[in-house]
Every structure is written in C-alpha cells, then in structure tokens.
Amino acid sequence: DTEVTQTPKHLVMGMTNKKSLKCEQHMGHRAMYWYKQKAKKPPELMFVYSYEKLSINESVPSRFSPECPNSSLLNLHLHALQPEDSALYLCASSRGGLAELGNEQFFGPGTRLTVL
Amino acid sequence: KQEVTQIPAALSVPEGENLVLNCSFTDSAIYNLQWFRQDPGKGLTSLLLIQSSQREQTSGRLNASLDKSSGRSTLYIAASQPGDSATYLCAVSDTGRRALTFGSGTRLQVQP
Asked: CB A104 to CB B104 under 8 A?
C-alpha cells in the first residue's frame, strides 16, 4: 500500500461548527504533515509530527488542533473557523522521522474545506 | 529564510515539444529537492527526488538536475503530451528544519 488517504474529500462547515479531518497511511512512515493550500498558491506547512510527537507548528492559530493517535493516523480538529480558512488541506507522510534520510514526501488527495 | 522561485509561471506548448521548467532557491544548504505534479483541485504527485549529493534523477520522459552551489534545479520533460498538462511544483528541504518549502509552481498546458 503506497498511498495516503484523506477523508472527507469535501467539507462545508459553519463558523460555530466543530469538525475533524482524517489522514491515514500504511507505508510505515514515521513523519506526517499537514499543509494548507489556497487557490493558485503553493502548499504552506502547518504541522509536522515525527514519531507521533509534534515537531513543528508553524504558528498556526489554535482553532486548528492536530492529533496523531498512532503512527498511521493523523487528525486535524477544526473549531470556530473563519471564512478565510477555506482551502485545500493536504496531508503528507515520509519514511523515517524528521531527522532521518530519504524523506521523500507522499501526499494525499486533500480535503476541500469551505467555511461559511 | 529559504525562498523558492519557479520560472516561468505559465507555459503553453504544442504536443511533442521538449521543455524545461526552472526552479531556484536562495539557501544552498538543502537536504533534498523534490518535484511534484498537481492536477487542478487534486493532491500532489511526487515525480522525482534529488538528494543534495546527487546531480540528476531520471524517470521515464522526466529528467531533473540539481546544481546546489548555484541554487538551481531544472525539470526536463521530453516529447510532451496533453496528459502532461498540470501545475509542476518544486520544493526544497532544508538541512536544519527538513520541512519542505515550495515554489509557486509552473502551470503547463500542452496543446494537442
């Protein structure tokens, strides 16, 4: 299995809702990433988990809360989002931890989030 | 702070042409460089990964080169096809942080 899966594919939520995005990989990768991509812009790194520990937080607002319950699963919990948070949210994984060699990143198809 | 630039921003070519996409980065202390393809509204597909010690990598009709000292990489696509139409993104991983910094991409359109 060489893919990263993300659910849901599309999500529409109001500013008072609480929702979660899910990412899963079964490649034995130990680093997992969340990126945010606005239309016609490159992906921007949000969070990195290495061996299930949060290694990088790119000063993301607290209304985004990541969670890594195990080495295969990565969640992004959303609460009280703003319309400007509407974007494509991409998950990625790479072999080994953050400091190890050969960290080619593999991306999931993304979740298209719309905040009303 | 690492900055990655891709030129051109958009490119339209007739089918069958060979083409070169350019990527430059400001900090040469990179760990690796990765080229991705992204179709509209979709995720990223990894095309080629070049480690900092390598000069080039090849996969089928794609060839990527790396000149770390001058902060440049090129992606060469041979005999382009309409199915190659997509946005091509270059990303570098720094020696320290190891997280990817992306360029803004080149939108490629191959006309049949």
From this structure: no
